[in-house]
Amino acid sequence: MEGIRILKGEKPLQGEIKISGSKNAALPIMAATVLHPGEFILHDIPVLKDIAVMREVLISLGGRVEQRGNSIFIDTRQIDSIEIPDQLMRKMRASILFMGPLLGRFGKVRISQPGGCSIGPRPIDWHIKGFKQMDAVFQESHGFIAGKSSQLQGKEIHLDFPSVGTTENIMLGAARAQGVTVIRNAAREPEIVDLQNFLNSMGADIFGAGTDMIKISGQKTLKACEHTVIPDRIEAGTFLLAGAITRGEVKLHNVIPEHLEATLAKIDEAGFKVRVEGETLTLLPTDEKINPLEIKTQPYPGFPTDMQPQFMALMALAEGTSLISENIFENRMKHAEELKRMGARIRVEGRTAIVQGVDRLFGAFVESPPALRAGAALVLAGLAAEGETVITDIEHIQRGYEDLVGKMKALGAEIELISVNGEEKND
Ligand code: UD1
């Protein structure tokens, strides 16, 4: 098992790094390649564990995948299986995104219940409901779900909630359905716009992504294409907070500032200035106190749930009391307990955390909860804490961040990867 050691916190980060391609954009786009038998080239794919699992799924279906640095070549011509192996499904919830492409291309899919971060129950009922509305039939037995449809039919689908994965999955299936599908109350995340752009490069006919109504005119045939995924707005937000919490100066390249509006608004409210120049963001240093915040997570363009844990780390050092409400996931406050071990004063009541700022955090031995942004929050706290911090169980951090330790080192952090017995790792 691997861990992260921060040898000495309280050191202002300084320097510049390039933000990686978006994990959450790359995952549905990789799944989309299954829709058409062909050879695809994707660029700016981050090297991290969730992407590796996606690669494994493609290979298990019969695809060929080669990754060279941040570019990935995917050949889906030989895909002949419609079943996602249970052990891969358990590793990553996003494997559910193969449901739309497999139903769209083969009219069949077989999966088990997905896994992923432990942040409360994450059912797939809305995905199934959407495909049922498109005339697919489902059967459940022995923990497996099998779906069938001789031809998905375009329909009007009104989502109960703007779920990101459900919106993407229905777009994927609808791209090869017969007729027109309209998704209402669709999620509006930038990753959905990127998926629309990719699918349209494949010859699909989709518009409206980025609004709450997406219209997909199904096509009989699609084609292979080449695509570069958008920058990762959550990685960018995490590094801005690393700069803020250490009172440093951090410059990030390869960012689309409009994708970070809610995050930037809260950083500003907390008392930090961010300079925006084209695709570059610079968090400027300040000696002023950190203002407490009221944060409510919401679907995009509201404040992202994926930035909630990192802001909790920053608020632990604010002057005053912050209120953080989690409205997307039921159980996404596990980082609070570990932050408390570092001296934070946090009370969690249901889905709300009351964070009473303290003057200082102290380095400690903490365990990353099985949720990747929670792990990132502990890294931020460690960077700001006095002395040494060791974070164990970091597999989930590695699921979502490309070379987090390397990038923090490039900004001057005294941080290293360690094996579980405390030795430095060289790989
Ligand atoms: C995606 C992101 C994740 C982010 C989340 C919310 C990817 C790979 N992951 O996850 O990083 O935190 O959006 O912005 O893009 N729900 C149901 N039934 C369903 C589907 C969802 O009840 O069938 C519930 C979930 O349990 C959750 C809420 O809806 O409480 C939102 O989930 P959703 O937007 O679907 O998130 P994901 O697509 O899983």
Q: What can you see in these coordinates?
A:
The protein is an alpha+beta fold and 427 residues long. Helix content is 31%, strand content 25%. The protein has helices at 23-32, 49-60, 86-91, 99-106, 125-133, 164-174, 190-201, 233-245, 261-269, 308-315, 335-341, 372-384, 395-400, 404-410, and strands at residues 2-8, 14-18, 39-43, 64-68, 71-75, 108-112, 137-141, 144-148, 156-158, 180-184, 205-207, 213-217, 226-228, 249-253, 274-277, 280-283, 294-296, 321-325, 345-349, 352-356, 365-367, 389-392, 414-419. The mean pLDDT is 94.
Count all strands and give the number: 23
Molecular shape: elongated
Strand count, sense and barrel status of the largest sheet are: 4 strands, mixed
Terminal Cα separation, in Å? 13 Å
Q: Work out the oligomeric state of the chains in this entry.
A: single chain
Bound molecules: uridine-diphosphate-N-acetylglucosamine
Helicity range of the residues?
A: 25-40%
Unreliable sequence segments: none
Q: Tell me what portion of residues adopts beta-strand conformation.
A: 15-25%
CATH homolog superfamily of the largest domain? Enolpyruvate transferase domain
Rg measurement, Å: 21 Å
Supply the number of helical segments: 14
Q: What would you call the structural class?
A: alpha+beta
Mean pLDDT: 94
- Number of spatially distinct domains: 2
CATH topology name of the largest domain, in short, is UDP-n-acetylglucosamine1-carboxyvinyl-transferase, Chain
Spatial strand arrangement across the major sheet: 21-22-1-23
Highest CATH level, the class of the largest domain:
Alpha Beta
CATH second-level architecture of the largest domain: Alpha-beta prism
